[in-house]
Each structure stands twice: as C-alpha cells, then as structure tokens.
C-alpha cells in the first residue's frame, strides 16, 4: 500500500469535497484517508490503481491536480 497527498485546485466548498470523494470512491483499491479543500490524502494498492489514475479521476470530476507527494 502507498500513501500520497494530492494538492487539488478549484475546490472551494462542500460540494467540491463531495465530488472529489465520489471520484475516489469509484476507484478500486483506493482509501480516502483525509479530504480537505485543496488537499486529499489517499492510500492505494499499486497493483490495482496508479497515482496517475487517481489524479485523472479527480481531473474528470472537474478539478486540477497540482502535485502529488
């Protein structure tokens, strides 16, 4: 299991939090550890999903992934 923090642009409210959570919930092997406006910390199984796929899901939800740490 790998843990990463994604810095996410464009999040401003509770609706944004729900949209990002929904995007993460749709990915197998991903656990959302912490979600705040502008940042999400996730733990994921690299055999099931990549950090790039997680970032893409967030982008598909309408937000910008600025960095992953």
UniProtKB/TrEMBL annotation:
Pfam family of the protein (one): HMA
Domain HMA intervals: 2-66
Name this polypeptide is given: Cation transporter
GO-annotated molecular function: copper ion binding
A biological process from GO: copper ion transport
């Amino acid at each position: 299991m790998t843990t990463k923090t994604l810095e996410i642009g464009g999040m401003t409210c509770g609706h944004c939090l729900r949209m990002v959570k929904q995007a993460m919930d749709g990915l197998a092997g991903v656990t959302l550890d912490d979600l705040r406006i502008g940042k999400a910390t996730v733990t994921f199984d690299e055999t099931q999903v990549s950090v790039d796929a997680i970032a893409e899901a967030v982008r598909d939800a309408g937000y910008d992934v600025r960095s992953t740490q």
